[in-house]
Write a structure and sequence with these properties.
Blueprint: E1 3-8, H1 13-24, E2 29-36, H2 40-50, E3 54-57, H3 63-69, E4 76-79, H4 81-88, E5 94-97, H5 105-113, E6 117-120, H6 123-140, E7 144-146, H7 149-157, E8 166-173, H8 183-187, H9 191-194, H10 204-212, H11 214-226, E9 234-238, E10 244-250, E11 255-259, H12 265-273, H13 287-290, H14 305-315, H15 319-335, H16 341-353, H17 363-383
Parallel strand pairs: 1-2, 1-5, 2-3, 3-4, 5-6, 6-7, 8-9
Antiparallel strand pairs: 8-10, 10-11
Helix pairs in contact: 4-5, 5-6, 6-11, 6-15, 10-15, 11-14, 15-16, 15-17, 16-17
Bound molecules: nicotinamide-adenine-dinucleotide and magnesium ion.
Magnesium ion binds at residues 148-150, 219.
Length: 387
Amino acid sequence: MMRRLSLFGATGSVGQSTLDLVRRDRESLRVSVLTANSDVAELARLALEFRPDLVVIADEKRYDDLKQALAGTNIGVAAGADALIEAAQYPTDLVMAAIVGIAGLAPTMAALEAGVDVALANKEALVSAGELMTAAARKSGATILPVDSEHNAIFQCLAGGRIDQVRRIILTASGGPFRTMSADDMARATPAQAVAHPNWSMGAKISVDSATMMNKGLELIEAHHLFPVGLDRIEILVHPQSVIHSLVEFVDCSTLAQLGSPDMRIPISSALAWPQRMVTPCAPLDLASIARLDFEAPDEVRFPATALCRAAIAEGGARPAQLNAANEVAVAAFLAGRISFPAIVETVRRVIDADAPATPASLQDIFSVDVASRAAAQYLVDHFEHA
Ligand code: NAD
Ligand code: MG
């Protein structure tokens, strides 16, 4: 059966991996919508290859360029934030939410409210607005299919038992590129070192989040919303080989795990084909050559981000949205060479140390918290000693 797919964030790492799978299975997958932030050349190239009904560029200034690049085709062209939201309501079977950051929240919410199933990679949206997103999905009947490898693993393991029979969820973490680095060396870490992930090839923002372990903290919040077993039942375990993508322990102390090569096309394919499975070009696991799997407890002294995230979601309300906004600003400042590596998590810590804003009741409230927290983080960034 043909499945229509709307792909938000087509030019990114998850977007390109998604299209690689579509390219190999044109019989069952058809792209209806493609979007990107500002890379007109790449978006136009993808549009000419996949022939969607509609393409949207978020940056309105690039509309004319995109229109021109697709002149003579029957592909619809639109630009801007409202066009992204409208595109999320375009008739489709699945929305792939692969925009990075809070920018993905409004279109993802629009899809969920319209009752469209969402394959969710955009963890920042769920971190900031988890209650609103899960409530919207419940109300409309839309399913959220997790694409993040850990959450996709848990989702798969939960097919082996009921959620009320879960004793523990164990989120695995590679530990990132600085797993064994001293705090002194981390203080001098460069953006190039931080984005060089040992196992996964990903966009710059999530790569830095992996280096600070903020990624695992965001994933803890993500897991809390997707799999409501109680925060104290979700643990983090460092597993440097990234072969086991997460585990679920049931009340009988039977533990299920999902394993696979560290290739995002595996969890993406699982979401695209769910509840079926599709063939992928990914490398099968060769456990004899991997030979061993290692595990260690996370070091929350060198990597304080996971504890910050646990406290933020335990407090709830506006805290997770505040934390996410501060982190987005701090990561961008680090990538721009403006603050040191340890200053990323320090910025987040200081922003969420402030009095809590009122609990957000609407998407607009989330955006207000986001804007205010960005300003607070930007102030700190502008006043940090330049290392
Ligand atoms: P990326 O930076 O490679 O791509 C981001 C995409 O979002 C691009 O298509 C870009 O054009 C679009 N975009 C960026 N800013 C935008 C804006 N303001 N408005 C509209 N579109 C915008 O990022 P990525 O690594 O593909 O990650 C995407 C999401 O998936 C993130 O939330 C990330 O945490 C999550 N994720 C990624 C991976 C991975 O392997 N890359 C794994 C798990 C989860
Ligand atoms: Mg992940």
